[in-house]
């Protein structure tokens, strides 16, 4: 029963910060008080699409938003759009109460695992086997989702839509390194420890809290539009994924109207394998993975 996959909530600063599974480089704007808990929509979305590493290890270490986007200096940090992010977050609609639904499909334990700020992964946890998403690709996924992903990409291509993976598996260690490097950079700029951590956390997911550590998440863009921003949602690739990804077992993990539940703002590029049955169920009922787990809990109780 997948219930056991729930992990103990991490009691830390993350609880009051909405953290992204991945992140986007900070945009230029005024600085918010670092003590202010912020839900960072765009800021906390991902930014990994930028790099084209040559090797898997480089891809996993460097590609990350949770990575590449870490501000190098305090002035860059100050430029981040935190105030805007906070107000957008406040404006996010509260999710509707769960409808009375039939029993959700069980799904495979490994495929429906929930990873978020409340359910972090352990330092040693990693997919059992990682494989490149395509021959020669630096991006790796859990071997169990390779075939569904490749089938999905081929189906899209057959309809004239090119899917481009810009991030996949990211290990705990690279996330931790990125986080620590960012904190150190802020400390060097004269931030207090608390400020340095809070500012870092606005851009970079805490180690263990990125779903990319599962090897089941992919950031998918298209050659003609590789920016990780909301504009991607209007591309044929994003629209094709929205309509068809569930047929291959993938779900849009961070829909715009579920940010209050997922803790992460709309990320039209971030897809997560959950299995065909569960993906169809989520899509059919307009649910996110957090709601699926809530239903499982309620039905089990
Ligand atoms: Zn992602």
From TrEMBL:
It holds the Pfam family VanY. Residues 1-20 form the signal peptide. Residues 38-93 have a biased composition (Low complexity). Residues 33-106 are annotated as: Disordered. Keywords: Signal. InterPro entries: DD-CPase-like (IPR052179), VanY-like_core_dom (IPR003709), VanY/YodJ_core_dom (IPR058193), Zn_M74/Hedgehog-like (IPR009045). It comes from the Bacteria. SUPFAM superfamilies: Hedgehog/DD-peptidase. GO terms for biological process: proteolysis. Residues 140-275 form the D-alanyl-D-alanine carboxypeptidase-like core domain. The keyword Signal applies. Gene3D superfamilies: 3.30.1380.10. One of its GO terms (molecular function) is peptidase activity. The keyword Signal applies. This is M15 family metallopeptidase. It comes from Candidatus Anaerotruncus excrementipullorum. The lineage of its organism: Bacteria, Bacillati, Bacillota, Clostridia, Eubacteriales.
